[in-house]
């Protein structure tokens, strides 16, 4: 399924009302060497080619476009890696790379996690964090769009509650490669940290 990014951006403002970042909610992997965590990569994107196509075929009626999108099927069941931290908590991680992207956006085509579970999304430089997303973000549709995260490589981290029998649903249906530097343009002025 394709998800229009104009609709995604509007929807994520509502989603952000339920997400926040506090000092006691820091991702486990934020200061770790994650080079051994599997990475998925998008096909190459030529910014110049896109700019030329847009100049050649301008349209004043299309919604604002800033990302080249790719349909995917990466999930907690078929990708990434589980690790066990010192507190006995299971943590699932996956890295996403879209070379030369100004930022990366995601759409979870399946997002449904148990109570006390947390999902964080952050960039390789560890200076741009989204989350934690919790069971408060579970929706009947199980679809969750994520605002742009700065940089061309990001980490998705799922923290499983201790002693839980509930299984999460986490599947990435779409990755967006930002070719317009939307964050620099302040299009999403509150995107750096959810507040």
Topology readout:
Elements lengths: L4 H11 L23 E3 L5 H10 L10 E9 L5 E4 L5 E8 L5 E10 L5 E6 L5 E5 L10 E7 L2 E7 L9 E10 L17
Parallel strand pairs: 1-4
Antiparallel strand pairs: 2-10, 3-4, 4-9, 5-8, 5-10, 6-7, 6-9
Gist?
The protein is mainly β. 11% of the residues lie in helices and 35% in strands. It has helices at 5-15, 47-56; strands at residues 39-41, 67-75, 81-84, 90-97, 103-112, 118-123, 129-133, 144-150, 153-159, 169-178.
Any overview of this molecule?
- With 195 residues, the protein is mostly beta strands.
- The chain has one domain.
- The protein contains two helices and ten strands, in the order H-E-H-E-E-E-E-E-E-E-E-E.
- The protein has helices at residues 5-15, 47-56; strands at residues 39-41, 67-75, 81-84, 90-97, 103-112, 118-123, 129-133, 144-150, 153-159, 169-178.
- Strand 3 (81-84) and strand 4 (90-97) form a beta hairpin.
- It is globular, with a radius of gyration of 17 Å.
